[in-house]
């Protein structure tokens, strides 16, 4: 992990100074850089691609359990926690559909105010008719 931090900051700070501050050997850092990726790291890259593809295949509507089932159908065996971790790393989230909520009840027995203006908005003097707009804005 320390080597990864050194790698990300090496363009801005001297490697020798960062190794000294993080208490690691400079030769260890250079050996780490030359070392090929581990089998798990290579598999992680492959899984990231497959999980992203499954996410697209399912129209971005499936959670980890259903993604696991989809991946299994395509011959990829992977654990649930690993899927969750990779989804978080890639920033993949399900699209959630909101339940329809009726905001108007036109079939009620309550008294309705009379329409006094009957869309005649021209008035003879100020302060004779007041109007308003109850248009709802789009909430996001």
Number of strands: 0
Q: Average pLDDT, to the nearest integer?
A: 90
- Please count the helical segments: 6
Strand count, sense and closure of the main sheet? Answer: none
Give the distance, in angstroms, between the N- and C-terminal Cα atoms: 39 Å
Q: What would you call the shape?
A: elongated
The oligomeric state is single chain
Beta-strand percentage? under 5%
Kindly name the structural category.
Answer: mainly alpha
The percentage helix is 40-55%
Low-confidence runs (pLDDT<50, min 5 residues)?
A: none
Taking Cα atoms only, what radius of gyration do you get, to the nearest Å?
31 Å
Order of helices and strands: HHHHHH
Describe this structure in words.
Helix content is 46%, strand content 0%. Helix 1 (2-9) runs antiparallel to helix 2 (15-22) and helix 4 crosses helix 6. The protein is an all-alpha fold and 140 residues long. It has helices at residues 2-9, 15-22, 26-34, 39-57, 64-73, 80-90. Among the domains are: 1-35; 39-96.
In short:
The chain has 140 residues and is mostly helical.
Layout of secondary structure:
Elements: H1 2-9, H2 15-22, H3 26-34, H4 39-57, H5 64-73, H6 80-90
Helix pairs in contact: 1-2, 4-6, 5-6
Task: Record keyword descriptors for this entry.
single chain, mainly alpha, 140 residues, 46% helix, elongated
């Amino acid at each position: 992990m320390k080597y990864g931090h050194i790698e990300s900051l090496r363009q801005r700070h001297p490697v020798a100074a960062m190794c000294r501050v993080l208490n690691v050997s400079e030769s260890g850092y250079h050996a780490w850089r030359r070392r090929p990726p581990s089998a798990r790291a290579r598999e992680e890259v492959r899984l990231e691609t497959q999980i992203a593809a499954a996410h697209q295949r399912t129209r971005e509507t499936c959670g980890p359990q259903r993604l696991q089932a989809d991946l299994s159908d395509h011959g990829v065996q992977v654990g649930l926690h690993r899927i969750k971790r990779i989804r978080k790393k890639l920033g993949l989230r399900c699209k959630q559909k909101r339940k329809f909520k009726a905001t108007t009840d036109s079939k009620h027995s309550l008294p309705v105010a009379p329409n006094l203006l009957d869309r005649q908005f021209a008035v003879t003097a100020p302060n004779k008719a007041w109007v308003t707009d109850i248009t709802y804005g789009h909430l996001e």
